[in-house]
Amino acid sequence: MAAIFFDVDGTLVRWSGGYGEIIADAFDRAEVTPADDWLAHYNERFFHHFGEFADDPYHRAFTDLCDEYPVDADPRELADALVAAEFDAVEPVPGVERAVEKLAEDHTLGILTNGIPGVQFGKVEEVGLLDYFDARVASHDPDVEATKPDRDIFEAAKARVDTETYVMVGDDREPDVEGARAHGFETVHVDASIADLRTPDFRTLATLL
Ligand SMILES: [Mg+2]
């Protein structure tokens, strides 16, 4: 038995459109028409708070936006609208459902993701896969506060499952592949963005493990 950890964005789930469309949808839900410079300011503030491991960077970034610009909406409403828009826009990466189901027969599956626990696990729940993952590790869990490729998040993952073999499956080379390898994981690199590849080769993965 191995412990197989999956990244979330670009590995288990992907957006049906671009992130710009999702933010636009969030403003739409709050009945606000954003000016051109609002999105850049929101993004800059989001990554600032995210980098500081704030518990709710969405809410904080919208609060900053509403302080800076005449936004006729409540930051809480905007933050909730954005998370709801993210949930509505996720779809499973093609091929992943069968692979996860098959791998779960013989292995312990986990999530190992950079992001807010409720949002990251919520996206996996949206596509109906969350129950397969017994070990759930997110960078912005107060007990973790480390992002891939840092050592501490990989150690937090290992601490959740007692086994000999740890595997990381992910789409981003530096955090998911290089980071995981440096901290004792076998790695599988998947790329859901290649247009002419219908599915990442999850089937091969499920056969090999
Ligand atoms: Mg990813």
Automatic annotation (TrEMBL):
It is an enzyme of class 3 (hydrolase). GO terms for molecular function: hydrolase activity. Its EC number is 3.1.3.-. Keywords: Hydrolase. The keyword Hydrolase applies. Belongs to the HAD-like hydrolase superfamily. This is HAD family hydrolase. The lineage of its organism: Archaea, Methanobacteriati, Methanobacteriota, Stenosarchaea group, Halobacteria.
